[in-house]
């Protein structure tokens, strides 16, 4: 039985919103969206993971009850709107923001699930949905296949899973929420960035040769 960590603290939840919103707004800017698109995609990406997490846990989304979440996402999108000319071509920045958002939202998801007495593996599932949900919504909104489903993509969901397992191991060893959160975020971030940098991908499913089709005779 895993001891219950405290509920997700603001110092962990708000950075997840800000980093995810920055990434979403940057994607919108690179896609040539106007200001409403930049702010809209920033809000969707920044708040999406947390809303999915809370709905999955049968809780009122914290973004709807605490105005600082929406304000943080708006400010993040505004920053991208102001410096769009400087960052539109910054692919590395997009990868870094996305990797940081994966780690932060993954940790907030697993943390909150454990605080509500979910089992370890159920909490891992919640963490993965929280981490991947905002990015999936962002990709669908921009008419792209979600990153987690793209063939040949570098480690994405796998990076989150490794980070969440690292979170659990650290919690079991040290019984300290802050240490577990830091390790979970850092491991997810490092695995995702290294996978992109080294082009690490998972192999595809084994292709089973189909049965030979007999020739048709006239």
Short description:
Helix content is 71%, strand content 0%. It has 218 residues and is an all-alpha fold.
Structure in words:
The protein has 218 residues and is mainly α. The protein has one domain. The chain is 71% helix and 0% strand. It has helices at residues 10-30, 35-56, 62-65, 67-82, 84-87, 91-115, 120-141, 157-174, 177-198. Residues 1-6 have low confidence and may be disordered.
Layout of SSEs?
Blueprint: H1 10-30, H2 35-56, H3 62-65, H4 67-82, H5 84-87, H6 91-115, H7 120-141, H8 157-174, H9 177-198
Helix pairs in contact: 1-2, 1-4, 1-6, 2-4, 2-7, 6-7, 6-8, 6-9, 7-8, 8-9
The shape is globular
Strand content: under 5%
Q: What is the first-to-last residue Cα distance?
A: 70 Å
Percent in helix: over 70%
Q: Class by helix and strand content?
A: mainly alpha
Overall mean pLDDT:
88
Radius of gyration: 19 Å
How is the main sheet built? none
Unreliable stretches covering 5 or more consecutive residues: 1-6
Question: How many helical stretches?
Answer: 9
How are helices and strands ordered from N to C? HHHHHHHHH
Quickly count the domains. 1
By DSSP, the count of extended strands is 0
